[in-house]
Each structure stands twice: as structure tokens, then as C-alpha cells.
Design goal:
alpha+beta, elongated, 5 strands, 5-stranded mixed β-sheet, 8% strand, 3 helices
């Protein structure tokens, strides 16, 4: 018997596979470096073209989710006013019990689960409304939204004059709820009476959260997505001040 190290493997025609000439190839089984670089470049180009479209689609989806949630707030507001002699729910401005804030009151008047956080709000720390407020960090954010304090039933600036729908000149042109900035923490309302310019308005509202626009709920119970300039004109018609809403007196009346 021949020694093991002298045994050769033979292919077809008796040619040893071990002795096959180095120039003979068994077929291509791998990419060259240039081919790999070309593939990577093509993938990068495709991603570069697709990512903006994907980001835009995600942004649109977040806007639709927020707008839908605002409409649920609007439905809850209408249900509350119909059950409470057209009175509007209060903010935290002059109340001590969190369960009396508009945030919690409207949640009881909605069949849907009201989301206190807008999907586009980049704030990281929010209050858990299932737990007592006084047991949580006072720097936590209450909500992505804020109510117009001028139509708070307990507003000291107006003396509570606009505590009912019947007291507001044109409810469909008066903002009740808006989106608050990402930086806001323990607040659920804002004070339009302190604004003197559009720059001050922008400082207290998330006016560009949705592609240069923001979502609003009006006193009559409808919601809209608007540019902030569409809500503010001073002096002149202003959607924040109950006494300066456009369209008053209505032509049909």
C-alpha cells in the first residue's frame, strides 16, 4: 500500500486537482472590489432619493395623528358644553385640584383615548395623569397642548366674562386650544393678553411643529391646521381674543 501522503485526488481525465495549473479557474464566485464599490454607491444613491420621501411621509403621519387627536378634543369640548349649560372647562390658572383641569375634564367626555402628547413633540418627560400630580416631578411636562386663558371661566383679565359659549361673539373664529412649545413644562394654558407682536405669539406656541403649521381647536368644536399668521392680526381681527374675532356681527344676523 502506498503511503497516505503519496495519494493524489484525480479529476476527470486523470488530472490531479492538486496539480491543476494555477491559470485554470473553476468559475467566478466572488465580486471584485470595484464591483462592490459600485453596488454600495448605487444603494447610497437610492437611499438618498428615498429618505426625504420617507421623512416627509413620517411627518405627514404625525401631523394626521395630532390633527385627529385635536378633533377628539373638539368633540369632547362640545359634549362638555352641551352638558354644562354652554359653560367652558377651566384651566389650572385658578384651581388647585388637577382633576378639575380641562385636561382631565375633557378626557371624561371622549369615547376615544385622548393623547396628551403630540407625536411631533420632542419633549422627553411627561406627567403620568394616572398618578397624583403632587407626587411627581414639578418640571415634568403636562401636555403638548394649551388652552386660551381668555376664555377660562376664572380668567382675572376678563373677569370671567367669556365663561359661556353664548358670551363669545363668534365661536367658530375663537381659538380654544393650541399646541404648546416643546420646552414648556407644568403649564396647560397661555395668556394672549400679554402678546404685543407676532414674535411673542411664536414664542409661546409650537407654531411650526407640522411643516410650518400648527393644529388648533376652536370654541365651536372644530379643529384646523393653520399657519400662525392666520390666527393673529393686531390691531384687527384676532382669533385669540373673543371680542375681536372676525365676522362680527355676522351678516346673516
Amino acid at each position: 500500500m502506498k503511503p497516505l501522503n503519496s495519494i493524489h485526488s484525480f479529476g476527470r481525465g486523470g488530472i490531479s486537482l492538486l496539480d491543476r495549473p494555477s491559470g485554470v479557474s473553476q468559475g467566478r464566485c466572488a465580486f471584485t472590489l470595484i464591483e462592490l464599490l459600485v453596488v454600495i454607491a448605487v444603494i447610497a444613491l437610492l437611499l438618498g432619493a428615498l429618505l426625504p420621501a420617507l421623512n416627509k411621509a413620517k411627518s405627514l403621519a404625525r401631523n394626521l395623528m395630532c390633527a385627529s387627536n385635536m378633533r377628539q378634543f373638539a368633540v369632547a369640548l362640545k359634549a362638555y358644553t352641551e352638558e354644562n349649560d354652554q359653560r367652558l372647562p377651566p384651566s389650572s390658572c385658578h384651581l388647585s385640584r388637577p382633576q378639575d383641569y380641562w385636561l382631565n375634564i375633557l378626557a371624561e367626555y371622549s369615547d376615544a383615548h385622548l393623547l396628551y402628547r403630540c407625536p411631533s413633540d420632542r419633549s422627553r418627560r411627561f406627567v403620568d395623569w394616572q398618578k397624583p400630580l403632587d407626587e411627581q416631578d414639578p418640571e415634568l411636562k403636562w401636555s403638548s397642548f394649551a388652552v386660551n386663558s381668555l376664555i377660562d371661566p376664572k380668567c382675572s383679565y376678563t373677569g370671567g366674562r367669556y365663561n359661556k359659549l353664548s358670551e363669545i361673539r363668534n365661536p367658530r373664529y375663537c381659538i380654544y386650544l393650541c399646541e404648546s412649545p416643546d420646552s414648556w413644562t407644568a403649564y396647560d394654558h397661555l395668556h394672549p393678553e400679554n402678546w404685543g407682536s407676532i414674535e411673542e405669539v411664536k414664542g409661546q406656541i409650537a407654531w411650526d411643529r407640522h411643516n410650518g403649521k400648527s393644529n388648533f381647536v376652536f370654541v365651536d368644536g372644530h379643529a384646523e391646521t393653520l399657519e400662525i399668521e392666520q390666527t393673529w392680526e393686531w390691531p384687527g381681527p384676532c382669533l385669540w381674543f373673543p371680542g375681536h374675532a372676525p365676522g362680527w356681527p355676522p351678516d346673516e344676523e
